[in-house]
Write a structure and sequence with these properties.
Layout lengths: L1 H13 L2 H11 L21 H13 L5 H21 L1 E7 L11 H11 L3 E6 L2 E2 L2 H12 L3 E6 L13 H8 L4 E5 L18 E4 L3 E5 L3 E2 H5 L3 E7 L2 H15 L3 E3 L7
Parallel strand pairs: 2-4, 3-8, 4-5
Antiparallel strand pairs: 1-9, 2-6, 5-10, 6-7, 7-9
């Protein structure tokens, strides 16, 4: 019985809720597990055939379980999977020395994963950006998919910012079709106070996947530095972060860099 429940839980994670509903409705019409072959088409052409086969096998071992119970369990597993997705899943991302206590995933790998997942919109924020060939390749791929890309960077010291490297100019020359923003100079500080800097680092895809990290868009951060971040899949946080970044644009806290000049 435990094997059957484990396979049903996997199916709840793998299949779309609508597909699970179709499968469960079909299973309810069966007389017993001996008629399982009649359900094959209800799983759809893209279902994992091995996983479907495991369901058949596990159910045969637990043959006293009725079709109605299997259908009910499938619906419950699907509902739990949807609830989990809505709450969001958080993964720790650590780049640097390994202790064996925390899984190590390179920042570069995770950032590329977010960029490649974007279907409609992508927002990146970094203090500085240079020497990141793999990220540029991933961004070019997103451009090819017609993803709207927005990047917020710190201005160079020649334009009132806090970095000597002009990341804005460099990014514009490499990827001229993306929208680049900087923190408006008149919004960085109150009169008589020191100005702030764009020190946040994050990437958000479609308001559904967010990577919040200590890493800048540099080769050192991607490959050599000790960096820490979290990857958030689903839930409210990616949506809220994307909406917040868009609000910075709409309220003109950050301003778009003109195509005719550096800033």
């Amino acid at each position: 019985m435990d094997d059957l429940l484990a396979v049903i839980a996997e199916l709840g994670l793998e299949l779309h809720p609508d597909r699970i509903s179709t499968v469960a409705s079909k299973i309810e019409t069966l007389g017993s597990v001996e008629q399982f072959a009649l359900t094959r088409s209800s799983f759809g052409p893209n279902a994992d055939k091995k996983l479907v086969g495991r369901l058949n096998q596990a159910w045969r071992i637990s043959k006293d379980t009725s079709p109605g119970d299997v259908a009910f369990a499938l619906r419950g597993a699907s509902a739990a999977a949807v609830l989990r997705e809505n709450r969001g899943a958080v993964e720790l991302v650590w780049t640097g020395p390994s202790t064996g206590l925390v899984p190590v995933r390179h920042t570069e790998q995770v950032l590329c994963e977010v960029i490649e997942a974007a279907k409609r919109r992508l927002f990146l924020v970094s203090f500085v950006a240079y020497e990141v060939d793999s990220i540029i390749r991933a961004l070019r791929g997103a451009i090819g998919r017609q993803v709207q890309i927005e990047v917020l960077l710190e201005s160079s010291d020649k334009h009132g910012g806090k970095v000597t490297h002009d990341s804005v100019k460099a990014m514009k020359s490499i990827l001229p079709s993306i929208d680049i923003y900087v923190w408006s100079s008149d919004k960085k500080s109150l009169p008589g106070q020191l100005s702030g800097a764009v020190h946040a680092k994050c990437a958000v895809a479609d308001g559904e996947l967010a990577f919040i990290t200590s890493a800048n868009l540099t080769s050192a951060a991607m490959e050599r530095n000790m960096e820490l971040g979290v990857l958030v899949k689903g839930g409210e946080l990616p949506f809220e972060l994307h909406r917040h970044l868009e609000a910075l644009i709409s309220t003109k806290v950050v301003e778009k860099v003109n195509e005719d000049n550096d800033e």
